[in-house]
Here is the input.
Amino acid sequence: MNRIGDYGMIGDCHSLALVGRDGSIDWLCFPRFDSPSVFARTLDTDAGHFRVAPAGTVEGVRRRYLPATNVLATTFVTPTGELEVTDCMPVHPFDPDQPTAVANYASVLRRVHCLSGQVRVEIELRPRFEYGTVLPRFTASSAHTAAVVGGPDALWVRASGALTVDRQYIGASWHLAEGDTAWIEMEWTPAAGSCPHAGVDDHAAAMEGRLADTIAFWSVWMSRCTYVGDHERRVHRSALVLKALTYAPTGAVVAAGTTSLPEWIGGTRNWDYRFTWIRDATLTLASLALLGYLGEAAAFKGWLERTGAGRPEDLQIMYCVTGQRLLPEIELAHFRGHRDSFPVRIGNGAAGQVQLDSLGQLLEAGYLFGRAGGELTVDNAGFLGRVADLTVRAWQRPDQGIWEIRDEPRHFVHSKLNCWMALDRAVRLAEAGQLEGDLETWRKERDALASWLHTEGSPDGWYIQAAGYPLADAAALLVPALGFLPPADPRVLATIDVVQRDLSDGVHVHRYRSPDGLPGDEGAFLLCSFWLLDSLIHAGRLDEAEALLERLFDLSNDVGLYAEMVDPATGELLGNTPQAFTHMAVVTSCSAISAARRGQLPPPDTAYSFIEAALDRRLTAFGS
Here is the structure.
């Protein structure tokens, strides 16, 4: 079984596939990120895969993305020659502003090319629908085409070489000499649908055209990126990952493209991340705006508006990409789990938790959207005013917090900090004439929250996890990032020191080390390392920050992808992948360190929002 860090990603802005270093697609859901799987060998060896690789011995593997694309090329070195497999999920129609239209057709396209010598390539396609529970019916349509039908799904397979079809799988064995190219494409439709491209005469030429169109789509989209700063290659790869994690019909960005990849090998902390969290709103909008993709930022804001429409009291912390609220958590007992990490879960029970930080993220997102050049509508303003009123009523309640503990609620510092931000941004919007409401009450409760944070939140001169829990928590690193205190404030610097002492070994930063209602261990959370990086940058500790950033770059895999966590002892990537939060942090942190090197950050003794400062730099640079 491939390890988490062995996977590259391809996607079509509806779903994504994970491609291992062995040439096997081990994870794919059609037609959406959160649909039941077609291939799930990431979670069980018998749950389906699609392998294209040389027969016999492989002496080496090299991988790369074609420039400015999410098209993955894997080169296999064998004793007799070199073979390149190029993988993509065709994106259609090929319009940067409308990358996909409807979710009733999708495909995976694989090109096989012999670079030197001669190589025998073997193909094994074993789909297992509905999370591995359905063994479909395989039917040969001709020597080069086949159909696979089971339950609600159908696959249509065509290749430039001969296929072998039996009751369990579709296979092939082709001999290629230097310069030879072969093709295989697997297209999905609902079971009641018809075969796509049925009337095409030259399938190889048609597949070559779809690959060329897909390369063009990504290249055109990437050409619109306006990021100016250091580490451009890293930032561009993260931009492409974020686009691939975007569900085009609604603009929602999923937290990750997978479910139940473990936070610790053999552990039980295995969750479904194929949903969109309200908490991610600020970082999502900010990273897209910093990259210059205001259209994508507006689409995500539109998803937020539609999904949260109604009463603020009814808000959930996460939703399906289409806005659905019901995300029941179910354990799939027939799966063994990734390297025996059980249970495997679909859905996410945290959707029903109380997490007050979402209130702050919504108001911050609205505030920053306006700073980035967007415009709040009357409906937007009315809703945000009601969110501020809800914050006034709710901030004194305990909650499950950003880490979604499955334990008794607590008065988390991070949650109170975000409630403070909610009211602070509401006051700013009201003072600018963009929001109407009880301004006097908003100010009064904002000040009460500030008093709580100064006393209950930092009783010993540094910011703790929660009232009554005087323990280090990486989320406390956000105290300056949200604009509550200056980056050089002694309490902020003391918090950095405590996090480094208690939660960090330098590059690896754990979220916390307190009881959370769950058994077992977890890896170091990569986003927390970027939070530490940002704290060092804005506090003026640039030598430390630059050294940390270089080490963080080393934690991505060979094609620049980050998962959720990492094993500090081995460097092995853990958790769901690719992780949107981590790639958003690459964008914002690289922007910050670039600005710091150029003397463009506010003084460290000034309180300001890190994200707001970044957006101000962008607006100054582009005059918009």
